[in-house]
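pasting input
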Amino acid sequence: EIVMTQSPATLSVSPGERATLSCRASQSVSTNLAWYQQKPGQAPRLLIYGASTRAPGIPARFSASGSGTDFTLTISSLQSEDFAVYYCHQYKKWPPWTFGQGTKVEIK
Amino acid sequence: QVQLVESGGGVVQPGGSLRLTCAASGFNLNDYGMHWVRQAPGKGLEWVSFIQIEELATLYADSVRGRFTVSRDKSKNTVYLQMDSLKSEDTAKYFCAKEGYCGDGSCPLHLWGEGVLVTVSS
């Protein structure tokens, strides 16, 4: 099983600032890595797939990079609607499909 | 409108059963691999089960294998999750999710339903 580890667990950021979230896989997942955003009481929403491709409708302030075992999600200028929990997800080697434990982006 | 809607959740005693339904609208669910993912209260996401197109394969997490069964009804554009021998640790919100944007035969989860709550308690 591939273990996904996200850091930090919580990120406190002021609106308008940049946020950088990290995800590490216990073995290579190539670029089979997705990022999801989840707000309280809502379903996760796909933001990024293929490690760096934004899903349709996702604002350009969201960008992502990485391959192999180390990945980064960057939100260039945080908007109020971006405060949420973000999960990475590997879909390279399955079963099981595995998720990171999440990073909560909160208002500083 | 393209969407997934789950139903069938509720409160059940340990050892009991529930059947969750995931109904698709706006697209043919049978053209896609479908997953069930759960989230215990205050916790992260845990993959539960997968059903391939044409039911070529069904896969399960170790924690539910032998107790849960995933299936499709093509005529109803629906996927089911039959959950038997439920345990308190199965308490969670259950989401169905559709694969999309596949590459190398592997796919992220493109579209999610809003989820349904399952509570296992005496």
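fyi Chain A touches chain B at residues 30-32, 34, 36, 38, 42-46, 49-50, 53, 55, 87, 89, 91-92, 94-102 (CB under 8 Å).
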